[in-house]
Design brief:
The complex is a heterodimer of chains A (about 80) and B (about 425). With about 80 residues, chain A is an alpha+beta fold. Helices cover about 25% and strands about 25% of the residues of chain A. Chain A is globular. The two termini of chain B are about 35 Å apart. Classes of the chains: A alpha+beta (about 80), B alpha/beta (about 425). Chains A and B meet through β4 of A and α1, β18 and β20 of B. Chain B: Pathway: Cofactor biosynthesis; molybdopterin biosynthesis.
């Protein structure tokens, strides 16, 4: 199992603060994003949108290629625009 | 309207301060590593394991006042006369109270067995070997019960607390001589820029003094960090990568000022991106806005703006809570604001929240008032030295003299 956390605006949009998920078959964070996007509706808006969300695995910022292992904590944050 | 909180069509949305803080705090992990230190060396450190009382405080029922210990069963209304059978000063332990007598007792002295109240001396009259009690007390009056303050083995200081002088006193009072504290957070500082010269050296043409590294070091020292200065790094991509890697290899956090803004001729941004991840945030505050956050080989990296005032404000609002959490603190990560009236008008608010350099002081009537620095230019360090805090001026809100706003005193920020 992994723990998935949603922060700030994402938490409000998705009406979910955290959930536990089975990590079996998930290769990396991109795989998890696809899984979440496929839930459709708001999930598709958030995870399938043009703006990427920020991701962290065990409190470290990562890109989508980062591996996910059993027991990990994955955090998603609102996209950062500008810069 | 553009202030509905939804995405604006007119350009990139700025990140609200609260969102940036939440993100930062969720990415901050307390350092691993605990050391046990004698109490006298613990000031400013963060407690890693609870402090439990070794004793019961107070250790016995004791008198809260100077007076007479009696048993209320012996009271026969106002003016009861009792012989004084013993005298118990603080530090002595009395004998059981003989029925029908009173014991002279002093503050802090143990209440003798069989006594159930202390009468304060102001309502007593000594008459030879007797005492006349003008007003009989209630049972339990003026007795501090054993364990009233602390029971043995009770937790008196929670992990995550920064040790202040009062905590040292409390630990000593409950018999604890050493504390388990987190090791000091090690922060590596990084300066680049050929135009920078250390104070004390002569300035060449086009050169300025390197104040930012000194400001940052001061801010980090004040938080009890161990600061590792990497000094000036040559302005090349390879040298920057090498220095960053060296910094990450020996520190818990790498910090720098400047060099990460858009369009700056600098190798810092590509170097961090090569070694790890870097995000640029535009935060809806003034002064401030840009903040760089990322990881270098797994070590967090915080890049603050290069402007001296902006660096200071950004550090106080964002880097400080992040650092406190890394140090192991669990509460009080963000400052507690005061509220007071402003003594100026604010007719043209920004869409970003303003953290104005300000002074909170008493006016002629003794009422606290917030004054702001005359210049809003963010390049002026003298404005910070003049200030004693930051006034929080809300976004999109016209303010008039006398309106109440939040004020963050530097005592909450430094």
């Amino acid at each position: 199992m992994i723990k998935v956390l949603y922060f700030a605006r994402l938490r409000e949009q998705l009406e979910t603060a955290s959930e536990e998920m089975d990590a079996a078959g998930l290769e990396n964070v991109n795989g998890l994003v696809t899984l979440l996007k496929d839930r459709g509706g708001t999930w598709d808006d958030v995870f399938g949108g043009a703006q990427p969300v920020l991701m962290a695995v065990n409190q470290e910022m990562v890109d989508g290629n980062a591996a996910i292992n059993d027991g990990d904590e994955v955090g998603f944050f609102p996209p950062v625009t500008g810069g | 309207m553009s202030d509905c909180g939804c995405s604006s069509i007119s350009g990139p949305k700025l990140k609200p301060l609260e969102e940036a803080l939440e993100l930062l705090l969720n990415l901050a992990k307390a350092v691993e590593g605990v050391e046990t230190l004698p109490l006298s060396e613990c000031l400013g450190r963060v407690l890693a394991e609870p402090v439990n009382s070794q004793v019961t405080v107070p250790p016995w029922d004791n008198s809260a006042m100077d007076g007479y210990a009696i048993n209320t069963a012996d009271m026969k209304g106002d003016g009861t006369r009792l012989p004084v059978s013993q005298r118990i000063p603080a530090g002595a332990s009395g004998d059981p109270l003989e029925p029908g007598t009173a014991a002279r007792i002093f503050t802090g002295a143990p209440v003798p067995p069989n006594a159930d109240a202390v009468v304060i001396q102001e309502v007593c009259e000594a008459d030879g070997d007797d005492v006349i009690i003008k007003q009989p007390p209630e049972a339990g009056a003026n007795i501090r019960r054993a364990g009233e303050d602390t029971e043995k083995d009770q937790q008196v200081i929670a992990p995550g607390t920064r040790i202040e002088p009062q905590h040292i006193g409390l630990a000593a009072a409950v018999g604890v001589g050493e504390l388990a504290v987190y090791r000091r957070l090690k922060v590596a500082l990084f300066s680049s820029g050929d135009e920078l010269v250390d104070p004390g050296q002569p300035l060449g043409p086009g050169q300025i003094y390197n104040s930012n590294e000194y400001t940052l070091k001061g801010l980090l020292d004040a938080l009890g960090c161990e600061v590792v200065s990497l000094g000036m790094v040559e302005d090349t991509f390879d040298a920057t990568c090498e220095a960053l890697s060296r910094a990450a290899g020996q520190a818990d956090l790498v910090m720098t000022s400047g060099g990460v803004s858009v369009g700056e001729e600098d190798y810092l941004k590509p170097a961090v991106e090569k070694l790890g991840t870097l995000d640029m945030w535009k935060i809806a505050i003034r002064p401030g806005k840009p903040l760089a956050f990322g990881h270098i080989e797994g070590v967090p990296f915080v890049g603050t703006p290069g402007n001296p005032v902006t660096l200071f404000v950004t550090f106080c609002l964002f880097a400080r809570p992040f650092i406190l959490k890394m140090q192991g603190m669990t509460e009080g990560l963000t400052p507690t604001p005061l509220r007071a009236a402003i003594d100026f008008d604010w007719p043209k608010p920004d869409k970003r929240r303003e953290f104005a350099r300000a002074r909170l002081q008493l006016d002629d009537q003794g009422v606290p008032r917030i004054s702001s620095y005359r210049s809003r230019s963010s390049g002026v360090l003298s404005s910070l030295a003049w200030s004693n805090g930051l006034a929080v001026l809300p976004e999109n809100q016209v303010l008039n003299k006398g309106d109440q706003v939040e004020f963050l005193p530097f005592s909450e920020l430094l």
